[in-house]
Amino acid sequence: MFRVQLLFVGAVLTAAVGLGSPQAATAEGVRVEAATPSGGSESAAVMGEVTLIGKPPKRRPINMSADPGCQSHQAKPSLPEDIVVGPEGALRNVVVYIKQGLADRAFEPPQAPVVVEQVQCTYRPRVFAAMVGQPVVIRNGDATLHNIHGFPVANPTFNVAQPAQGMQDTLVFRRAEPGFPIKCDVHPWMTTFCWVFDHPFHAVTSEDGKFSISGL
Asked: How far, in Å, CA of 35 to CA of 9, rounded?
């Protein structure tokens, strides 16, 4: 048996970036289908959808005028991603993970890195998860100065400059830790949130609010 822990990242991020009290909106109980192993299989999957009940806050365009280079390549104004809601209330960027039931099992981290891009003066993705020991590559895709300033608590803090397009740095976290911000001090609107797990059973909801965790 296992339990799914759902975190309303919109509210968490609102507090993290100092926007004051969370908006009057709640994340609906996630609709989950637990697969029953068949044919002698010892694995299962859990999948579901996260939706928002209530009216999301209005997303006002980000003012990037402080760096003309950021403004010049914007096809349309960028919008903040504290709470991103799609059709029918689909809630994006929610971290879902297995909280209990793994006992003392240990899991090898993936060799493939998690890749985070700084592109058009925005972090992509906005929210990501990695395993302890898994490489996290953060790359500057813009022809302007960025820096990677992380604020973890369980892991060491870091602050690395990337003055040139194409530069990248690889981070490896040694302890599990819930979401912490990584910011660009040059462009204060740029923030991504990193979650570090000691197991592979986690997911971040996509644009349609859906997630899937397999191999259970």
From this structure: 26
Q: Which residues of the chain have pLDDT under 50?
A: 1-40
Radius of gyration of the chain, Cα coordinates, nearest whole angstrom = 18
Q: Is residue 136 within 8 Å of residue 113, measured between CB atoms?
A: yes
Kindly state the greatest CA–CA separation across the chain: 60
Task: Determine contact, residues 30/49, Cβ cutoff 8 Å.
Answer: yes
pTM of the model: 0.80
**157: CB partners within 8 A, 6+ apart:** 150, 151
Q: What is the pLDDT at residue 73?
A: 60
Torsion over CA: 76, 77, 78, 83 (sign):
negative
State the CB neighbour count (10 A cutoff) for residue 108: 9
pLDDT of residue 3: 36
